[in-house]
UniProtKB/TrEMBL annotation:
<dbReference type="GO" id="GO:0043565">
    <property type="term" value="F:sequence-specific DNA binding"/>
</dbReference>
<dbReference type="InterPro" id="IPR018060">
    <property type="entry name" value="HTH_AraC"/>
</dbReference>
<keyword id="KW-0805">Transcription regulation</keyword>
<keyword id="KW-0804">Transcription</keyword>
<keyword id="KW-0238">DNA-binding</keyword>
<feature type="compositionally biased region" description="Polar residues">
    <location>
        <begin position="255"/>
        <end position="265"/>
    </location>
</feature>
<dbReference type="InterPro" id="IPR050204">
    <property type="entry name" value="AraC_XylS_family_regulators"/>
</dbReference>
<protein>
    <recommendedName>
        <fullName>HTH araC/xylS-type domain-containing protein</fullName>
    </recommendedName>
</protein>
<feature type="domain" description="HTH araC/xylS-type">
    <location>
        <begin position="152"/>
        <end position="249"/>
    </location>
</feature>
<dbReference type="GO" id="GO:0003700">
    <property type="term" value="F:DNA-binding transcription factor activity"/>
</dbReference>
<dbReference type="Pfam" id="PF12833">
    <property type="entry name" value="HTH_18"/>
</dbReference>
<feature type="region of interest" description="Disordered">
    <location>
        <begin position="246"/>
        <end position="265"/>
    </location>
</feature>
<dbReference type="InterPro" id="IPR020449">
    <property type="entry name" value="Tscrpt_reg_AraC-type_HTH"/>
</dbReference>
<dbReference type="InterPro" id="IPR009057">
    <property type="entry name" value="Homeodomain-like_sf"/>
</dbReference>
<dbReference type="InterPro" id="IPR037923">
    <property type="entry name" value="HTH-like"/>
</dbReference>
<dbReference type="InterPro" id="IPR014710">
    <property type="entry name" value="RmlC-like_jellyroll"/>
</dbReference>
Length: 265
């Protein structure tokens, strides 16, 4: 982390109906994209990977950012760009999954709120952000071995269908493996179960809708939960408060704090 010189960008980004093209990371920079909602495409060594809520993509100089998929689905992400010492190479994996008690969206909100309270980000704050992302990065292999192809199919199916009434059995069928094999693979590669990943996708979608002040019944219907009571229990278990209280306590996305630091040119 000592090679981090400063913070060039800290911003919430959303496509909101617009198609987004990738861009190339400039020299002496590292840029992270923490996906909060929706899905997009990340190219790694000529291969395309579907990324969705919870994925953390670590770009180095000369690499390209994520871009819209063929359907131009909406997605949101937190962008963090760091200035680094010349000649220093980052070690984190290019494609990771956020792993930790705090959710990606909460990390996004906390980072932006902290920045809003300070006139300029200190080097210590920059290195803190960098270190948090590094610590929470659970590698997702980009090798095209059979287990990784299975994992890719499973994550792609979840990203495409998490808003519907899908089960772990449906995910296993889409990945062409048994449920027990799928559980083992997710535990080994992601440190969590297929159901936990599915719930993470749904919860990130739900939080986004709550922050946009949408009714809880609409959130339940749009996020694949079986009932309103089940959603409320699951939400309170994960975030410590019921969704209604969370919505009242959080500002809407349209009223993000202050002006984010931004220098992506």
């Amino acid at each position: 982390m000592n090679h981090v010189k400063g913070l060039l960008a800290l911003m919430h980004f959303g496509t909101y109906g617009h198609r987004y093209q990738s861009r190339t990371i400039r020299e002496h920079r590292e840029e992270l994209e923490l996906v909060l909602d929706g899905q997009a495409i990340c190219q790694v060594d000529g291969e395309q990977f579907v990324v969705g809520p919870g994925h953390l993509i670590w770009h180095r100089s000369g690499e390209r950012t994520i871009h819209s998929n063929a359907r131009s689905d909406d997605y949101e992400c937190l962008i963090l760009a760091f200035e680094i010492e010349p000649g220093r190479i980052a070690t984190p994996p290019r494609l990771s999954y956020w792993d930790g008690i705090i959710s990606p969206r909460q990390f996004c909100d906390d980072a932006l709120a902290h920045f809003a309270r300070h006139t300029a980000p200190s080097v210590d704050f920059c290195r803190y952000l960098y270190g948090c992302c590094k610590v929470h990065a659970q590698p997702v292999s980009t090798d095209r071995t059979l287990p990784d192809r299975v994992l890719h199919r499973a994550l792609g199916f979840i990203a495409d269908h998490y808003r519907g009434a899908i089960s772990v059995a449906d995910i296993a069928r889409a990945a062409h493996v048994s449920e027990s094999h799928l559980h083992t693979l997710f535990r080994e590669r992601l440190g969590r179960t297929p159901h936990q990943v599915l719930v993470q996708y749904r919860m990130e979608e739900a939080v986004g809708m709550l922050m946009r002040k949408q009714p809880i019944k609409q959130v339940v219907n749009a996020c694949g939960f079986e009932s309103e009571s089940g959603f409320i229990r699951a939400f309170k278990k994960k975030y410590g408060v019921p969704p209604g209280a969370y919505r009242r306590a959080e500002p809407s996305i349209g009223s993000a704090p202050s002006q984010p630091i931004m220098n992506l040119a």
